[in-house]
Amino acid sequence: MQKIPQVSRLMFIKSARAILKNPLPFHKENFKLKGNTFRLKLGISESVVFSKDPLFAQYVLQKNQKNYKKSPIQTKDLAKYLGQGLLTSNGTHWAKQRKLIQPAFHKKQLATLIDKIEQAVISEIENIEVNKPFDIFPIFNDLAFQTVVKALFSSAVDQKSINRLQYITETAQEMMVRELRQPYLIWWFKFSGQLNSTLKLTQEARQILKDLVKERQNQNKRQDDLLDMLLDARYDDGSAMAEEQLIDEILILFTAGHETTSNALTFTAELLARHPEVQDKLYAEISELDNENDLLLKIKSLQYVEQVVNESMRLYPPAYFIDRVSIAADSFSSYEIAQNTSLLFSIYEIHRDANFWEDPNNFNPDRFIEDTSIKYSPYYYPFGAGPRMCIGNNFAMYEMILAIAELVKRFKIEFKASPIEINPLITLKPKDAILQFTKREN
Questions:
Q1: CATH 1.10.630.10 fits 52-439, yes or no
Q2: By CB count within 10 A, which of 1, 23, 148, 359 is most buried?
Q3: CA distance 296 to 289
């Protein structure tokens, strides 16, 4: 057995400021120097194992997933804002919640939500201004948030509450990022009251959601939305979710359901601006299906749109790293993994590895013509993998396919040649996504 190559704590300290701004170049350099897997020494006894080995990721996330749990970053740091839901829990509690909620996200159930998704998409796409450059991210951010709101609550929530929920969700995320990137300032965040102020905001969000749930329960009218599905869900003993648990899950749907989608849509638009030939091909496919009234059939028929979205998430995976902690000692390949080892898999690097992808830095939607579940499954993780794969992956794909189809149907994105800028926070976010649109002549 071999020891995992190590990067010294001194190297980490020297690079701390650069890592705070963007950790990806630091990771890339150490993968180049140390190989596909290395250990970063953070303190006297604290370290993290980084890897871009897709087979290692597959082993931890799928083949031996029972020996690995989510890290305290999610189960403690994130949980204090969102509660103990699917995204932030481990063990039997997670398994119980997953079994309960999974049926609401089956494709058959999601078919009932497609009209609501389309309404939100069209409403926000219509806000795009033409013939002037602007940052497209806020449009897609609002689109993704409004989509989650409509899928959860139909039209039962007023715009003031929506705006407040969105503000609180984004403020909590910003505070979380500051805590993770600047752990040496935790004392200041507490002393200055910033942390407590953010936690109070999350309590406000919980109360808004409780009021919405109570209002629905007092009505004797079904909306057949996600909230109805969650209220209908029953554990094995026949009981329903407790109120606090229901709010935990709704908060997580807001956070996970809009953050990653808005990022992916923005990166897709950025890529289309640099590839007008792909826009033309998209427009041709979308135009052929313009008269299709069956939305589900239309989504399934927009194959090239799906390829474009898949390729965008390969180059810019919103969840650009996945972390786990070993429960018991283990081994993989020639490496021993001690108990309580923190592991971080770089999805960004795996998706750009020339060993698995031809011309990995090139935007080529045609690489996804073949069935991705067969050809790329060991190397492609846009929604994670294994039992903890994102429960909303089908919902997100429906939303993104509809959004890109509506965007390209209505507008042409003007050519842009400058490099795409990124801002790696909890998710991989776009930076300065300034684009210009012109109205298509129908």
A1: yes
A2: 148
A3: 12
